[in-house]
Amino acid sequence: MVLGQPESSPPEDSGVAQEMVSRLLHINAATGRATVLADLPRYHPGLLQVSPIAPLAVLAGPPSEHEGEKAFLHILTPKADLGKVIFLPDGVEGFISVRWSADGRSPVLTAISRTEGDEPPRPVFYVVDPVAGELSPVEKPEVYSSPEENPDLSLSEAEASLAAPKGSPPLKARLALLAASKPTPGEHAFAAAAIDAEQAALSPTRDSVAYVAHGAAFVREIVRVPKEVYLEAHAAARRSHALADAKQVALGILMHAADNEDRLPSAQEFPHVLLPYLKAEGPLQAFVYLAPADRIADIESPSVTRLGYIPVPPEG
Question: Residue 126 sits in which domain range?
């Protein structure tokens, strides 16, 4: 992941604009640990590729359309900021693509080689030894094929308006959306992977999402589960949330009764008389009030009498 960060913080009254630097991070999805690979130059007209296996990246430039510029390759590792620089042999004009070897640990370069006479330029291939910094020409390189666990997933960004308290304007948020290319008929094709994400990226194997929000980097695992298991977990979460909301409303009812000589709210008074006793209106909107008595003392069996309920999916 490439993350833009301030390079320095000039004094507020200096009139100097804050400089930004592009910082390349390698994030371990299993541990959530981020390792800085390099601070990239402000202008790098090249091809940046990160290894799908190792904390290693390459910055190849300039691309083939930059004529007259010497083609180079930067090896980026956690131990070297813009480390070894490798120049391609004479006669090679620029890069077409940068891929990875079958084991995911060595860059595989496709470049353009000049030819004599009227012959068109031809592609040439090199495998890079990132430790020795050496190029080896190859005829037909074997390239890395990602063992994707979720090949039908992609990641995109979108602007969204979120619900806000009454009287307030809608909240704007940037969403990182996971999209399924072949959703099950009748089901949603999108799911929010992150809210207020400044940047987001899928892992090479599409089994996790890394994103940056509010100045921190996060990693969320993508787990494929049977639909029935997901629906049951979702229903259990709704029941747990409803139980917490119902407890808030019940406590508000009892607090109102304590302030009003043990008198319970009438059906006509509910829910507005309880607003001072709750932090939010949400639980009140879902609560079905039964108004079991006028006063608490009129309830014959308090331990089994329901004040009300919130409808939830049944268990199982």
Answer: 2-138
Dihedral sign for Cα atoms in the order 47, 210, 38, 40: positive
Q: How is residue 275 written in tokens?
A: 């607003």
HSE of 49 in the Cβ direction (CA atoms, 13 Å)? 21
DSSP 82: T
What rounded mean pLDDT belongs to the chain? 77
Strand 92-100 versus strand 153-162 pairing type: unpaired
Where is the domain boundary, 190, 221, 252? 221
Q: Where are the alpha helices (DSSP H) in 260-302?
A: 282-286
Alpha helices per DSSP H over 147-275: 227-259
Query: How big, in percent rounded to 5, are the helix, strand and coil portions of the chain?
Result: 15, 40, 45
Q: How far is CA 10 from the centre of its chain?
A: 31
- Let me know whether 16 and 78 are in one domain: yes
Secondary structure (3-state) at 47: strand
The H or E element containing residue 109 is strand 107-113
Convert the pLDDT of each residue in 173-202 to its tens digit: 777 777 766 666 656 566 777 777 777 877
Domain count, the chain: 3
Whether 93 and 125 share a structural domain: yes
Tell me how far apart the 2 most distant CA atoms of the chain are, in Å.
Answer: 105
- Using left for φ > 0, alpha for ψ between -120 and 50, and beta otherwise, residue 133 falls in left
Q: Which of 184, 187, 221, 214 is nearest to 199 (CA)?
A: 214
- Phi first, then psi: what are they for 111, rounded to 5°? -130, 175
| Token output for 299 | 């309830």
CB 314 within 8 A of CB 239: no
Q: Please tell me the distance from the alpha carbon of residue 277 to that of residue 76, in angstroms, as a whole number.
A: 58
pTM, 2 dp: 0.49
